[in-house]
Amino acid sequence: MQVKLNVVVGAVAALLCGTAMSQEVVKIGHVGPTSGQIAHLGKDNEMGARMAIEELNAKGVTIGGKKVKLELLAEDDAGDPKQGTAAAQKLVDAKVNGVVGHLNSGTSIPASKVYSDAGIPQISPSATNPKFTRNGYKTTFRVVADDVHLGGTLGRYAAKDLKGQSIAVIDDRTAYGQGVADEFEKGVKGAGGKVIGREFTNDKATDFTAILTSLKGKKPDVVFFGGMDAVAGPMLRQMKQLGINAKFLGGDGICTGELPKLAAGTMADGQVVCAEAGGVEGQAKKGMDDFRAKFKTKFNTEVQIYAPYVYDAVNVLVAAMVKAGSSDPAKYLPVLAKTTDYKGVTGSITFDEKGDIKNGALTLYTYKSDAKKEQKKEQISVVR
C-alpha cells in the first residue's frame, strides 16, 4: 500500500514538475530612475509595473495555447542617458520580450535605438519629447501625449486663462525640460502673450538666486519651469524668499504628490498649475480612482504620477502578445502597432503610425490644502 502511495505521489510530483517546467516565462523589462534626485518617480513607475504583472499572473495568462508566467526585470538608469543605454543593452542581452520605460525623454530617446536594433518593443509611460517617436523606429511607442500638446496647452492657458501679461520661462536643459519649455513659449506667443525672459539651469541645481533675481526685475506674473519636481520644489522656496508671487506653471515633471514637500510649505494654494499627459473624466474617472486606491492599499503610499501609465503599458504589451498568440517580439509587434481603443485606467489607448497615442488627453491640476492642511492635487480640467 505504501509502495503504491509513493508511486502515486511520485507521479503527481513529476506531473506538477513537468507542468511547471513547461510553463513559458515571458520577461517584461522596466527601466526608470530608482536612484538619484527623482528616485521617488522611478520607484513609483516600477511599482506600477509590479502591480500589473502580479495581477496578470494571479488571473492567469495564456499565449498561443500555453499558460505563461510573467517576470519583471527592473533596471535603474538614474535618469542618465549613458546609464540608460547600458540598462537597455542589459535587458536586450537578457532576451526580454518587451520593455516599459524609460521615464525621462533624455534616457528614452537613446535607449530606443538599442531596442530597435534588437527588434524589442518599447512603450514609454512618460517620455513626452516629440523626438522619441520621430526616429522611424517601428518598436517605439508611448501612452502619453507629447510636449507639442502639453507645452502648447500650458502656454495658451497662461496667456488666455491666467491672462499673463509678463511670462518668464526657465528650463533645465534636458531633452524633456527644454523641449516642453520651447513648446510652452510657442503656445504663449501663438495666443498673443508675451515672454519677458528665458533662463536656464540644470537638473541637479539647488541655487536659483541669480536667474530668479534677474527675472524679478522684469516683474513676471507667470513663471514656467521645464523640468522635474526635485528642482521645482527648491525653486518655489527661493521664489518665496525673493518675494516673487507669480503663478508657477510646469509640465508633468512637476505634477507630483511630492511637490508640496519639496517646496517645504512655501506654495500658496492655487499658485501652481501643472499638466499631466493623460486624463479621464466622467464615468471613466472611476477606473483611475480605483487604481489609486488599490495602489495605496498594496504599497502603502500614494501614486506620484506615472504608475497608472506604466500599469497600462504592461497590460497593452501583454494584450498584444495574447492576441498575436506569441510572445516573440517579431510576431506580436505588428499587433501591438495596431492597438485600437484599449480601455486602460488612464483612458483609451490607440497608437498612430509613429507609435504615439491618438487624441492624447491632458489634465490640468493645481494644489490646494485639505482639511488636514496638506496640499493635494486638485483637477482643474481635462483638455483634448
Task: Please describe what this structure looks like.
- The chain folds into 2 domains: 23-144 and 285-351, 3-Layer(aba) Sandwich (Rossmann fold), CATH 3.40.50; 147-276 and 363-383, Rossmann fold (3-Layer(aba) Sandwich), CATH 3.40.50.2300.
- By secondary structure, it is of the alpha/beta class.
- Helix 3 runs parallel beside helix 4 (105-118), helix 5 packs across helix 6 and helix 11 crosses helix 12.
- A 7-stranded mixed beta sheet has the order 8-7-9-10-11-14-15, covered by helices on one side.
- The radius of gyration is 23 Å and the shape is globular.
- The protein is built from 12 helices and 15 strands.
- This is Branched-chain amino acid transport system substrate-binding protein.
- Residues 1-22 form the signal peptide.
- Residues 26-370 form the Leucine-binding protein domain.
- Pfam families: Peripla_BP_6.
